[in-house]
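Troubleshooting log. The previous structure file for this entry was overwritten by mistake, so regenerating from the original sequence record. Sequence copied from the archived sheet and checked twice against the printout by T.R.
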Amino acid sequence: MTDATPRAWQRMLSGRRLNLLDPSPLDVEVEDIALGLSRVARWNGQTTGAYPFTVAQHSLVVLALVEAIKPLPARLMRLAALLHDASEYVTSDLITPFKAAVGPGYKEVERRIEGAVHVRFGLPPTLPEEWRRQIKQADKDAAFLEAVQLAGFSVEEARKVLGYRRKPQAMTIAATDPETARLQFLAAFQRLVQA
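Regenerated output below.
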């Protein structure tokens, strides 16, 4: 063990310790994910309202958009949609330009944590391409809604900055307090795993 090894661990409030460089599915708990995501702000906290719009809330919007697909996607794909940013419970939500500046190491850590989360909750470590495509589209739809409704972008500016070409989804979103976001995330998770 080198001196750097202990620094790769993150202690969670559940008592679990997650090795960020070699995460084990056995150290992943949904309560830790829900807590972390409910306290991580999207848009670097630059949103309207009394509370920041969190990654937990964003995940719920992505899930709602995926659940609007007809016919209703498989339960595991919907669970994957809810967990699509789960790695951010430890890596945080870096804005895209900063991720690019940090380099490929950040994406590799995210990928490893994502794989551990997937295995922990019965998903394939790497999602099928069709799932990834549909979840990514819902993620882009959610980002567009957030940009226009919460982050102060005009429709034209959001289209240009995000490269968004679709007709926007008809959904109103608003930030809520972190505890409500945590509980809503956990309720959605329980609904999907008990279905």
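The chain has one domain: 20-193. Archived copy saved in two places this time.
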